[in-house]
Amino acid sequence: MTVINSHRKAKALKQGSRRPAKDLCSECGLCDTYYIHYVKEACAFINQQITELETIAHGRSRDLNNENDLYFGVHQEMMSAKKIEPIEGAQWTGIVSTIACEMLTQGLVEGVVCVQNSDEDRFQPKPIIATTTEEILGAKVNKPTLSPNLSVLEQIEQSGMKRLLVIGVGCQIQALRAVEDKLGLEKLYVLGTPCVDNVTRAGLQKFLETTSKSPDTVVAYEFMQDFRVHFKHEDGSVEKVPFFGLKTNQLKDVFAPSCMTCFDYVNSLADLVVGYMGAPFGWQWIVVRNDIGREMLDLVKNQLHTQPVISRGDRTQAVQNSIPAYDQGVTLPMWAAKLMGVVIEKVGPKGLEYARFSIDSHFTRNYLYVKRNYPEKLKDHVPEYAEKIVSQYKLPD
Ligand code: FAD
Ligand code: SF4
Q1: Could you report how far apart the first and last alpha carbons of the chain are, in Å?
Q2: Atom of ligand 1 nearest to the CA of 97
Q3: CB under 8 Å, gap of 24 or more: what pairs does 381-386 form?
């Protein structure tokens, strides 16, 4: 009890004030609450402790000699899945929102931490504790900006809720796990999504304006397995821009420094992870990490088509080629980018091998970023699994 009470004396930081992680802050929301008391241990960018927290959350840390564990974290099972009846307007088919709704209506939890958008701006995140299915569905679709999901943590303790589901991305979940035993909960469920290349609201505007033909009408976007960015517009049309045609020289500084130093793409500490990158196009990718995750997935299994994960192709040369291309900010002319996209889509990595392609390209890029910008952090901040992944490639100095 003394532990639970001690943090209440701490004071949340004022909005806009500098956070303890300084430039590396991902605005996870912890410092907007009195749980800032634990920031030095809890912050993913001050104290990377994935291995230790894996053991607490899943009963073991990942086995670095097992390739699927090395890449995708501790898991019991992976599969491809899609909703038999997709939720209109969800990011993909709405598996995340469906699980949250079932957990609430079946009484497993009293509330769900998720993120809606503000009334004025569809991309401005507004974290809430949802207590109705309408509120959960109001949070569907990605807010592709840094989102302070943990800013509602104080309300949990004050509300007296004992059973809670939290939906979030890796940095939010890492801080959450570090304070989990201080929240006064009887049961916590954690539903994660993978996350990469996130941006501030201002950074998002720059990305949309540099990349889309109609930035003001974009309602959602995703970096897809066909090596194109798909922008969904208000009128339902989809604009596709090849990765290789992105204006990398202008976009180099657009991603948040936190995301340039992140090695938790696959949300290692969630009980259940729902993404897309390990699945064939049009399907979602599910990683069941532990028994709690299995319990959550079982609630919706009858609403899903499922199939085993596949893995085809060889990513390594494409990753090696991407390293200097990104480093030097090379942009191909649009006709060449389209051609390259088509060729790679035909012969390129598929399923889990595509996910490895994406992890390898981001980890090598981020490793170089940390080495150049935060050399003093390299040793402690880069987890051992990420070092092993990066060591497969030749990196420039
Ligand atoms: P929905 O039913 O539409 O629900 C989406 C849920 O996400 C909502 O509950 C909402 O609360 C939550 N959410 C939205 N924005 C945020 C945010 N900024 N922070 C925390 N929670 C949020 N998957 C991959 O496989 N590879 C990737 O590279 C990848 N990158 C991603 C980057 C970002 C910034 C985000 C937020 C997600 C990313 N994902 C990625 C996950 C993927 O895009 C989908 O979110 C996931 O597959 C769930 O789809 P759905 O239709 O089931 O979700
Ligand atoms: Fe605080 Fe979260 Fe920022 Fe770390 S990332 S400084 S915990 S708000």
Answers
A1: 51
A2: 2
A3: 381/45, 381/48, 381/261, 381/263, 382/48, 382/263, 383/48, 383/50, 383/51, 383/263, 384/51, 384/64, 385/62, 385/64, 385/70, 385/263, 386/263
- Is any ligand 1 atom within 6 A of the Cβ of residue 140? yes
**7, 17, 30, best to mutate for ligand 2 pocket (most atoms within 8 Å of CB):** 30
pLDDT digit string, tens, across residues 245-275: 788 777 778 899 999 999 999 999 999 999 9
| Residue environment code for 331-356, b if the CB has 16+ CB neighbours within 10 A, otherwise e | bbeeeebbebbeebbeebbbbbbbbb
Q: Are 117 and 135 in contact (CB under 8 A)?
A: no
Ligand 1 in reach of 225 Cβ (< 6 A): no
Name the CA radius of gyration of the chain, rounded.
20
* Structure confidence at residue 2 (pLDDT): 47
Q: For 70, phi and psi rounded to 5 degrees?
A: -55, -45
C-alpha triplet 223, 224, 230: angle, nearest 5°? 70
Query: Rounded to the nearest whole angstrom, what is the distance from the C-alpha of residue 31 to the centroid of ligand 2?
Result: 6
- Burial-class residue 247 by CB neighbours within 10 Å (0-12, 13-18, 19+): middle
Q: Is the CB of 12 under 6 A from ligand 2?
A: no
Ligand 1 proximity of 361 Cβ (cutoff 6 Å): no
ipTM above 0.85, yes or no: yes
